[in-house]
């Protein structure tokens, strides 16, 4: 049963990476794929820590940092939409 859960989390990680690489035009899709990657890493971390019978305190630290990463990405998305009107990467000039 543990092997199947690890395979599912690895498949989630690969799928999140594929979405991140292939759908790079919108910032919102990139942020959602990053959150999906964080969720898959959290799931893998949970399986690993329960397998070795370790304390789950590290999961709480990981969740705090992932929430901070999500809030930072959302604030960048909101400021980009306010200044440029959309979340396309081609819609603004980096120079």
Key features?
78% helix, 95 residues, Helix Hairpins, mainly alpha, single chain
What does this entry look like structurally?
This protein is mostly helical and 95 residues long. It has one domain: Helix Hairpins (Orthogonal Bundle). Helix content is 78%, strand content 0%. Helix 1 runs antiparallel to helix 2 and helix 2 packs antiparallel against helix 3. It is elongated. It starts with a helix and ends in an 11-residue tail after the last helix.
What percent of the residues sit in helical stretches (DSSP H or I)? over 70%
Uncertain spans: none
The global form is elongated
Annotated CATH topology: Helix Hairpins
Supply the CATH class: Mainly Alpha
What's the average pLDDT?
87
Assigned CATH architecture = Orthogonal Bundle
Structural category? mainly alpha
Question: Topology, pairings included?
Answer:
Elements: H1 2-22, H2 27-51, H3 57-84
Helix pairs in contact: 1-2, 2-3
Q: Concise description?
A:
It is built from 3 helices and no strands.
């Amino acid at each position: 049963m543990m092997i199947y859960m690890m395979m599912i989390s690895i498949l989630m990680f690969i799928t999140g990476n594929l979405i991140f690489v292939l759908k790079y035009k919108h910032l919102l899709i990139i942020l959602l794929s990053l959150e999906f990657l964080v969720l898959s890493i959290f799931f893998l971390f949970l399986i690993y820590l329960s397998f070795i019978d370790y304390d789950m305190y590290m999961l709480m630290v990981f969740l705090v940092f992932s929430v901070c990463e999500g809030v930072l990405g959302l604030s960048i998305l909101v400021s980009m939409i306010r200044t440029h009107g959309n979340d396309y990467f081609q819609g603004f000039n980096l120079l």
